[in-house]
Design goal:
By secondary structure, the chain is an alpha+beta fold. It has three domains: 2-106, no CATH class; 118-221, Phosphorylase Kinase, domain 1; 230-384, Phosphatidylinositol 3-kinase Catalytic Subunit, Chain A, Domain 5 (Orthogonal Bundle). Helices cover 31% and strands 18% of the residues. A five-stranded antiparallel sheet has the order 4-3-2-1-5. The chain has a five-stranded mixed sheet with strand order 6-7-8-10-9. A three-stranded antiparallel sheet has the order 13-14-15. A hairpin with a 2-residue loop joins β7 (159-164) and β8 (167-172). The longest helix is centred in the last third of the chain and has 25 residues, at 347-371. The protein is globular, with a radius of gyration of 21 Å. The mean pLDDT is 89.
Length: 392
């Protein structure tokens, strides 16, 4: 399988990803010699796929590539469109269109043509198609192209990539089993994150016959090109998370430590990450796993934290997905405070940030909940999920 990367307005072949087979049970990747000689070449992953002329082997598909594998909804669409279920995750990549970041994949040295996304004017029709899929009803072949780019960043709920004013947006739809207006709640949480001085992705609320959908502006796109993106999971490079490492490597602390190796301004990035951790604790965004943190390529193998995304409350959970401090994934400001030093902060500085974020959530978010047309039962549920813990 050939791997392509957007460089200087075109997709160029980067290397070859080989699948496991009877003669070789490992995934293998090797950069092409022409790519290695390209003046603008850079490593797909500066920590685990360095820009060198050698073969990289892995028992599982490296997260550098699995970041682009569709989620469960995307896999369902893939099976509908192509008529088969791949026997390994990498096979989802070969027939896929642009997913996350700047990489695409194909069977030949000529990259597949990219079909343009649908537009906002198609949103009702796309939602009708989603309902047909959920009901396991056939979808006409001529309509399947509407959701060919339907998977990407932003969680496992039904979604599509749509164009609006030459910008790509991910549209996330409501689900039948939502226990509250999830799309409205995500839009409000993302908006309030900006009020808390967090660099979060731009969102807008879209009302339709489906109720509320949330649109998230893609930060991994610029002028129709992909911008290279790596999740925190890819940068950490692990395929499985040993329980013994949950509280150090696979944690906010662990991400903070790692950033000194590939970000241009680690001190600023650590401060931003700490603020995000405080916000997630305050509002109750507990699905903060390593794939919900990521990095955008800048230049010279240097990255910056991507805008925050997929921020929404999870009243059905009580613990974070990764460790927030020495007490593991416990949702508690003092737990986050216990490792403030990892973010370059003195205790008093960390408390000020935590209290600032807390106050924004308690005032701005609560006000937004009350101002929008949301059922009182939803408001009660979401308010109850906010943490009550002002540090002194």
């Amino acid at each position: 399988m050939y791997v392509f990367l957007w460089i200087e307005q075109q997709r160029i072949p980067v290397g070859v990803l080989a699948m496991p087979d009877a003669s070789h049970p490992m995934y293998r990747f090797r950069y092409g010699k022409r790519y290695l000689e390209h003046p603008k070449a850079y490593a797909l992953n500066p920590l685990h796929l360095e820009l060198v002329d050698r073969e990289f082997e892995s028992e599982r598909l490296p997260y550098t590539f699995s970041d682009s594998v569709p989620d469960e909804w995307g896999k369902k669409l893939f099976t509908l469109q192509h008529g088969f279920v791949p026997d390994n995750e990498a096979s989802y990549l070969c027939k896929g269109q642009m997913q996350v970041g700047a990489m695409t994949f194909g069977d030949s040295l000529t990259p597949q043509p990219l079909m343009p996304p649908a537009t906002f004017s198609d949103i009702d029709e796309i939602y009708d198609l989603y309902q047909r899929i959920e009901a396991k009803k056939p979808v006409p072949a001529e309509l399947q192209s509407l959701f060919i780019q339907g998977s990407g960043l932003g969680g496992a709920r039904p979604k599509a990539t749509l164009m609006d004013d030459a910008q790509e947006w991910i549209i996330k739809f409501p689900m039948k089993n939502d226990i509250f207006d999830n799309c409205l709640a995500e839009h409000l949480a993302m908006s309030v994150a900006k009020s808390a001085n967090i660099n979060s992705a731009e969102t807008k609320l879209i009302a339709g016959k489906f109720g509320n959908a949330v649109a998230i502006k893609r930060f991994d796109r610029l002028n129709g090109q992909g911008i290279h993106y790596q999740s925190a999971m890819a940068m950490l490079g692990s395929q499985r998370i040993p329980v013994s490492q949950v509280t150090n490597t696979f944690s906010y602390h662990g991400i903070a430590n790692l950033m000194s190796r590939f970000t241009e301004n680690p001190a600023c990035e650590r401060l931003e990450l700490f603020r995000r951790a405080a916000f997630n604790i305050a509002i109750g965004n507990l699905d903060d796993h390593l794939k919900n943190h990521g990095f955008i390529y800048q230049s010279r193998d240097l990255y910056a934290l991507s805008p925050a995304f997929d921020i929404v409350q999870h009243p059905d959970k009580s613990m974070h997905a990764i460790a927030t401090g020495k007490q593991g994934p416990q949702r508690d400001f003092n737990n986050l405070l216990s490792e403030a030093y990892a973010f370059g902060l003195h205790e008093s500085e960390a408390k000020d940030i935590i209290n600032d974020v807390y106050d924004v959530v308690q005032t701005d978010y609560v006000r937004q909940l009350n101002q929008h047309d949301m059922p009182q039962s939803d408001i009660k549920l979401l308010k109850a999920h906010l943490i009550k813990q002002h540090l002194v």
